[in-house]
Amino acid sequence: MISQADRARLRKHILAEQEKVRADIVYLGAQSGPVAPDNAIGRLSRMEAISSRGINEAKLGDAKSRLVLLDYALTRIDHPDFGLCTSCGDPISLARLQFMPESRFCVDCAG
Ligand SMILES: [Zn+2]
C-alpha cells in the first residue's frame, strides 16, 4: 500500500511529466509536416528530411500514448489499487513508479 505522502509525490511527478510530454507533442507535431519536394531542397537532404520526419512521427506517437497513460495514472492515484500490478496484483516498487508513474505492471510482468 502506497502512503499518502508517496501518492502526493507521485501526483506531482505525473503532473510534471504531463507538462513535459505535452511540450514534446507540440514540438514534434511542428516537425512532422509534409516534406518539401526534391527541387526545393535537393535530393539527399530531402531523404534526410523524410527519414527524420519518420523518427519524429514515431516519437510523436510514443509521446501521445504516454500522455494517455499518465492521464489514466492520475485518475487512479487515489484508488487503493494504485501501484498494484494489473497482471499479478503484486505491489509495483516505488522506485519503478517514481521512474515511470504510468506503470501498470511490476518488473516481472512487464518483461
Ligand atoms: Zn506483476
Q: How would you portray this structure in words?
A:
The chain has five helices and no strands. It starts with a helix and ends with a helix. Helix 1 packs antiparallel against helix 3. The protein is an all-alpha fold. The mean pLDDT is 91. The protein has a domain of 76 residues.
User: How big is the Rg?
Assistant: 19 Å
H/E order of the elements? Answer: HHHHH
> Which ligands accompany this protein?
zinc ion
Structural class: mainly alpha
Main sheet record: none
**Unreliable spans:** none
Keywords:
single chain, binds zinc ion, mainly alpha, 111 residues
List the helices and strands and how they pair.
Elements: H1 4-31, H2 38-41, H3 43-76, H4 94-99, H5 107-110
Helix pairs in contact: 1-3
Bound molecules: zinc ion.
Summarize the model shown.
This protein is mainly α.
